[in-house]
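Why this split exists: single-chain examples teach little about how molecules sit against one another. For that reason, every record in the complexes split bundles all components of an assembly together and asks for one structure covering all of them. Below is a record exactly as it appears in the raw files.
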Amino acid sequence: MTLDDLPTPCLVLDRTILRRNIAGMATALARHGVPLRPHMKTAKSIDVARLVLTGQGGITVSTLAEAEYFAAHGITDILYAVGITPAKLDQVALLNADGADIAVITDDPDMAGIIGAHPRPPRSLIEIDTGEARAGLVPADPMLPALAARLGPAFAGLLTHAGHSYAGRSAEEMARIAEAERAGIVAAAERLREAGHTVPIVSMGSSPTARAAADLAGITEIRAGVYMFGDLFQAGIGTHGIDDIAVTVLASVIGRREGQILVDAGGLALSKDRSTEAGPRDWGFGLVLDREGRRAYGDTTVRRAYQEHGVILLDPAHAIPLRVGERVRIAPNHTCMTAAAHDRYYVVDDGGAEVVAVWPRVNGW
Amino acid sequence: MTLDDLPTPCLVLDRTILRRNIAGMATALARHGVPLRPHMKTAKSIDVARLVLTGQGGITVSTLAEAEYFAAHGITDILYAVGITPAKLDQVALLNADGADIAVITDDPDMAGIIGAHPRPPRSLIEIDTGEARAGLVPADPMLPALAARLGPAFAGLLTHAGHSYAGRSAEEMARIAEAERAGIVAAAERLREAGHTVPIVSMGSSPTARAAADLAGITEIRAGVYMFGDLFQAGIGTHGIDDIAVTVLASVIGRREGQILVDAGGLALSKDRSTEAGPRDWGFGLVLDREGRRAYGDTTVRRAYQEHGVILLDPAHAIPLRVGERVRIAPNHTCMTAAAHDRYYVVDDGGAEVVAVWPRVNGW
């Protein structure tokens, strides 16, 4: 089976690039000696997880559907890194009774009390806000020791995510944000230790700060996910090479007219993510590559996206001499969003056209 | 089962509102005596199709996955309204050999020749561009008769879609666009009839122009889909009532802090569609309703959307006194995009909290 045999639109994963990205992060982290807990929210695939995990080690997930899926595939050490609710706590307890070891997070006093009073509480981390202002207690929050106390024996440590690193634009800025992330969560851990708590887990991370951190003293694990695939947004902020994007959407030409080509990958297949709009280069709804994933058409992009139609505006310097039915690949703005529209990866190696594997994804909730 | 028992995020469909929307379009079209060929690209559900179809009649679809699904559920008269490719033509021919009657569209001379030479060609329509400039031949295009000739006996008529009606902002403007859509495709049909072709199907439509058209003379069927559910974008352009949005996302509160609430519906559950940004009112990533779908929190919206986190910025005039685990509903910007992230509808009646049915959706390709 080759790329020409696939139904379009569909997701193509270049395993050679994926392996390179995995090795790159492993090298970046090796100098610190801090283990990676890969975030599987982007890949959502056991096959990808097996390439990332070398020997022992747990993962991070963003949904309980992922937690259940990975546990069923033998990965039991799982951190569910989205604030837990009472109903989801019961669901986690059931999965854990069934052999999983899913840890949860919260920043809410009521929820901490509910966890502490649960008959089978999972290991629970308190979320710390080190600058993103999305969730978590700031390190100096007076409630912090009380929250840990409410969790009781379930309290297992702290977690932070410097998601605001995505607004960074240089390696220096990323390194500064990484240090603030590290220093903030370590300060919170110290406060709790001074209050008599044991804080075994001090978990930080985002793909940009994992790579850019100069120092990880006091950190017990680091989380990163999107680095496995990369995307145009990550390329825009300088944390991923544009030629190192591992996942693309294969699309067929469905029409041609003066100055534009219509393809069968629209807003559903590409997502409506426009995160590159605010970046140094606006890639529309994605960068158009040739069937083998090569940058054969310059900076040509998908400029408009309807539900099932994508409009490629032709660059006069780069003709796309394709007929109806012939194929292009489209590199995504935000690979987490784009991949989630698809239920599987068609895997190729090293820019080849032969499909060497089909890997399912676990979508939904 | 009630809304409190559902895993979040998930999709809630109010059947009472759906029925009202269906009846409203039926009334709007009844004065013309032109049959509706409902577009199932938004609902993607046989249960919804059964409410829309009264007795005989076919449907429109946007993917071959939908075509296959609806044919398997007994709806065989199907128009696949996205430009066909050679590979998809073979797939349609197989489905048609198996009992379906899927019609296809093209605007491409090569593709028309491929259809004409196919051993089992489906009924084929030529796409006409009546102003959207996305696909189709303009009515006066000199190639039009040649395209019909290439299709040979497969040629079954014309199709147009005034998608640019979504840029309209008043009933008068929609009516003008509807008349241009009608006049354009009818002119194309007349040209072909003068050239000796029979043109049995003259298919036009979009939700705005279907509702606003003053005259449908010469039109044999009209297509519309998003009107069944509606969304904030359609409300913004005046084609749907904001209280008539049938589909919402049920989300749980996962955190609270000064001035904001965090919910477990982010960019994946809501979609990253920001179509209301350019409209008269920017609804962020969706309008926040209470658990029963009532507008209890004024104009409060989801202002930021991460993969699994949605940030609701609180309006000081409208407190949201909910604890972690309690629920809200979120009306979407663009229901076609939002619904596609979910594999089923949890159906309620008339603003109730009891789940009266679970209806699956057919996503993907």
